[in-house]
Amino acid sequence: MSKEIRQLEPKAVWNKFADLNAVPRPSKKEARVIAFMLDFGKSLGFETFKDEVGNVIIRKPATKGFEKRKMVTLQSHLDMVHQKNNDTVFDFDTQGIEMVIADDWVKAKGTTLGADNGMGVATIMALLESTTIDHPALEALFTIDEETGMTGAMGLKGGVLKGGILLNLDTEEDDKIDIGCAGGIDITAKGKYKERSTPMGTVSFELNVKGLTGGHSGMDIHKGLGNANKIMNRILFLGADKYKLRISSINGGSLRNAIPRESVAVVSVKKTRIKDFEKDFEVWSNTIKEELCVTEPDMVISLSEAKKPKSVMNFKTQSKLLKALYTAHNGVYTMSAAIDDLVETSNNVARVLVEGGKIHIGCLTRSSVNSSKIDLASALQSAFELADCKVTLSGDYPGWNPNPNSAILEVLKAQYKKVFKEEPKVVACHAGLECGILGQNYPDLDMISYGPTIKGAHSPDERVSISSVQKFWKFTLDILKNIPE
User: Fold this and answer.
1) 140, 156, 344, 384 — which has fewest CB within 10 A?
2) What is the DSSP letter of 400?
3) Which residues contact 461 (CB under 8 A, 6 or more apart)?
4) Catalytic positions, please?
5) Are residues 51 and 192 in the same domain?
């Protein structure tokens, strides 16, 4: 299907996107895409280098007549979120993304697409390669590891960048201009438990929660989507309370920035209580499905008999764990009082792994207000410590404070209205953009974020609008022609 993708307009962008998606580029494993980008910049004869953490910088001189305009730093991240459906056979470490066209959308076959932030990267590559587009001096900044720690942006030292304006191409709705974002912090809880032999006279079952929508734990957190970890915990809690259900293992979710779509648990129940348990399981499942019927129409909650495991959690630890996970806040915590309809603080209970005597829980807390972020993180820490887990807070990164008086914002607003005959929406978002981090070492850099429409980011439903990419490209070319001196 890559041939059909390459024929889409603008071909310059789609060809670069196809080239990029042929290179495996998971977060923290970006060696191949870094080499790919270094080779690309050097092949064009431009100043190209890698900083000490792995970010790639490429500089292109201004075209004739634009030499006096401010240098523009174009910024996108090289890594992508790796998620796939359970029934999709795919190796992200060795395979390129398999893309398909569906009406006005480009998506992948059962995996994430990498449009976040591959469309931004491809657009910058197309601008660097072009010999016909008018523009001021360009500085391309390709950061690494945005999705799992923002270590590329954090590691970029002051004095490296030369641009006076930064265009971050990582916003996912084409009628919005972003001027602010949330910061974030990772909460990791780890514990140990004593295993007990699976009780005699029990039957074992595998519980599955799957078919959920999933999505971006920042951009989609307000949509009322189901969280597979919380749904599974609710069922386990009810089963343990009424039937003394015993847990052997739980495996739910994956990445912190992805709303969990699937969870599986292996449990054991007394033979004498099986029929009643099965009836109640159906009632509990139907109740949850009814509650989430609008946002999760394809959710499946199933129960099937399983091979009897050798061991289960001791009941005391199990009880504490289920209560802690029930207590752990998931979803929107507070809405912003300063900006209408903006989520201020949220949490995603992203990962729950229980097996072999070990407990691992991973959350990502986001907020545009640092004190609120720490408040919620402390609440989560308290809940997990009450379950005898050791809790660490890490990966703390700042938000990006909105600047409504930004000069480049005025340029984008004026050009958007001129080109598209309507006003753009000037917003702040609940996702984590790199602008706030970059602004720490570059406080005078005038920053803005925009991009094409991308739906379902961080899930196998990720897709990018073809017509929106055309709009985004047109807007970008117009912005570059109107950069001030």
Assistant:
1) 344
2) B
3) 107, 213, 214, 215, 455
4) 79, 146
5) no
